[in-house]
């Protein structure tokens, strides 16, 4: 069975979460800045694309070498096994980036790599003209400190594109980040969950998908499904496994509410599309009155950050109301991502833990207020 060196790319600050997911799939991995590296086969590539909730993409590393000159870049690229991977009619655009390297012109590096691959294909297929009319094999040349890494993208559209989010809410959080926040909260389905500022519903939907073991990629396609060099049934097998892994609805509720009725309508629509509508209880409600008699729950939420000066007063009031809601729910844990520098003061309490994360390009903190955990039921002994 053919194995490949695979790189799951991770947003900065979330490498450890992606690594935990990779290990759960059964692969030992190495964690570097922005990436998690492991060895796997065709089925593993399919599983990774289907199951990794927090990674951006899954790439095959085709080669890695040091290059200081365009000649070195061309010669070393040409010797890599492109013709084992790319069929004669492959469409293979080359993207590029270069950081702290002698080869700093990205367009020049892209065209050198393209030329080297074309040359190796021309030699192998004894063909002057390559049509590039077939399936997509997207290649990236990435150079860091003169080390060139050449990768082949197996995902296609980024893995945050689960396919359920059809409408754009105000400042929606990326699905991959929403899933990471839920995983970082260590919430499990035996506890209630809520997002009382749910917007288009992403965090609650990701929580419901985690609770029911819904593979995040189950409803979408991936570039690697068309890769001729991978076993034909890899994705079919991985999809069958994913369908078998589905759990029935849990007993604890997942609540999603927002002050804006159009946002809640959107959240309902997205949850339906994601197949978890029945797992979530939706309501239109301001945080100022948010309350539940349930105990030991977990709130994960992404409030507005007040980037515009005109929003500042509203956001300050909102954070105070969030703090009041927390005091009404003393057994609950609160997990809040925001870029606002005075969040803890306005919320009225210093977080037990916080973690620097990026929401897109915005530097944020993920404030973690850890409530008590429910007592575990003692196993019945006979
Ligand atoms: C940044 S958006 C949340 C985006 C959401 N995570 C998503 O993926 O679509 C913040 C949400 O807070 C809601 N909101 C603002 N003030 C609120 C309040 N006082 N009570 C409840 N929701 C509020 C807004 O309507 C908006 O939908």
Strand-helix topology:
Layout: E1 4-9, H1 15-24, E2 29-32, E3 35-40, H2 42-51, E4 57-66, H3 70-78, H4 82-85, E5 94-99, H5 106-125, E6 139-144, E7 147-153, H6 175-184, E8 193-195, H7 202-211, H8 234-245, E9 254-258, H9 261-274, E10 280-284, E11 298-301, H10 312-328, E12 333-338, H11 343-347, E13 353-359, E14 362-369
Parallel strand pairs: 5-6, 8-9, 8-11, 9-10, 11-12
Antiparallel strand pairs: 1-3, 1-4, 2-3, 4-7, 6-7, 12-14, 13-14
The structure holds S-adenosylmethionine.
S-adenosylmethionine (SAM) is lined by residues 169-173, 196-197, 199-200, 202-203, 258-260, 263, 286-287, 302-304, 318.
> What best-fitting shape do the alpha-carbon axes yield?
elongated
Number of helices: 11
The proportion of residues forming helix, as a percent range, comes to 25-40%
Q: How many domains in all?
A: 2
Q: Please state how the strands of the largest beta sheet are arranged side by side.
A: 2-3-1-4-7-6-5
Q: Average pLDDT across residues?
A: 95
The total count of strands amounts to: 14
* Helix-and-strand structural type: alpha/beta
CATH architecture annotation name of the largest domain: 3-Layer(aba) Sandwich
Bound molecules: S-adenosylmethionine
How would you characterize this protein structure?
The protein is α/β, with parallel strands linked by helices. It folds into two domains: 4-153, VC0802-like, CATH 3.30.2130; 175-212 and 248-369, Vaccinia Virus protein VP39 (Rossmann fold). Helices cover 32% and strands 22% of the residues. The protein is built from eleven helices and 14 strands. The protein has helices spanning 15-24, 42-51, 70-78, 82-85, 106-125, 175-184, 202-211, 234-245, 261-274, 312-328, 343-347, and strands spanning 4-9, 29-32, 35-40, 57-66, 94-99, 139-144, 147-153, 193-195, 254-258, 280-284, 298-301, 333-338, 353-359, 362-369. The strands form two sheets. Strands 2-3-1-4-7-6-5 form a seven-stranded mixed sheet. A seven-stranded mixed sheet has the order 10-9-8-11-12-14-13, covered by helices on one side. Helix 2 crosses helix 8, helix 3 runs parallel beside helix 5 and helix 6 (175-184) packs across helix 7 (202-211). It starts with a strand and ends in a 13-residue tail after the last strand. The model has no long low-confidence stretch (mean pLDDT 95). S-adenosylmethionine binds at residues 169-173, 196-197, 199-200, 202-203, 258-260, 263, 286-287, 302-304, 318.
């Amino acid at each position: 069975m053919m194995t490949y060196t695979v790189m799951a790319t991770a947003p900065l600050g979330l490498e450890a979460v992606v690594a935990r997911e990779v290990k759960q799939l059964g692969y030992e991995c190495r964690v570097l800045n922005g990436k998690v590296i492991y060895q796997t086969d065709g089925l593993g590539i399919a599983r990774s694309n289907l199951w990794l909730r927090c990674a951006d993409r899954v790439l095959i590393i085709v080669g890695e070498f040091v290059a200081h000159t365009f000649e070195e870049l061309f010669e070393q690229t040409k010797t890599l096994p492109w013709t084992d991977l790319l069929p004669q009619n492959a469409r293979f655009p080359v993207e590029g980036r270069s950081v702290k390297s002698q080869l700093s012109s990205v367009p020049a590096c892209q065209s050198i790599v393209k030329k080297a691959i074309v040359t190796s294909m021309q030699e192998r297929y004894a063909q002057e003209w390559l049509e590039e009319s077939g399936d997509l094999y997207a290649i990236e040349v990435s150079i860091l400190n003169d080390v060139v890494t050449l990768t082949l993208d197996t995902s296609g559209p980024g893995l945050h594109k689960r396919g359920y989010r059809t409408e754009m809410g105000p400042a929606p959080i990326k699905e991959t980040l929403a899933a990471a926040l839920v995983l970082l909260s260590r919430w499990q389905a035996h506890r209630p969950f809520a997002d009382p500022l749910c917007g288009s519903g992403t965090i609650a939907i990701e929580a419901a998908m985690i609770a029911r073991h819904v593979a995040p990629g189950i409803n979408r396609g991936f570039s690697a499904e068309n890769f001729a060099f991978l076993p034909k049934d890899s994705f079919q097998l991985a999809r069958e496994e994913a369908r078998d892994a589905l759990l029935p609805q849990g007993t604890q509720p997942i609540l999603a509410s927002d002050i804006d009725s159009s946002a809640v309508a959107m959240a309902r629509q997205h949850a339906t599309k994601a197949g978890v509508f029945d797992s979530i209880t939706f309501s239109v409600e301001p945080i100022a009155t948010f309350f539940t008699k349930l105990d030991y729950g977990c709130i994960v939420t992404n409030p507005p950050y007040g980037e515009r000066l005109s929003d500042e007063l509203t956001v300050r009031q909102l954070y105070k109301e969030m703090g009041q809601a927390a005091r009404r729910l003393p057994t609950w844990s609160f997990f809040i991502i925001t870029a606002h520098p005075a969040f803890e003061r306005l919320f009225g309490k210093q977080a037990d833990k916080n973690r620097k994360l990026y929401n897109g390009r915005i530097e944020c903190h993920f404030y973690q207020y850890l409530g008590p955990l429910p007592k575990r039921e003692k196993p019945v002994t006979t």
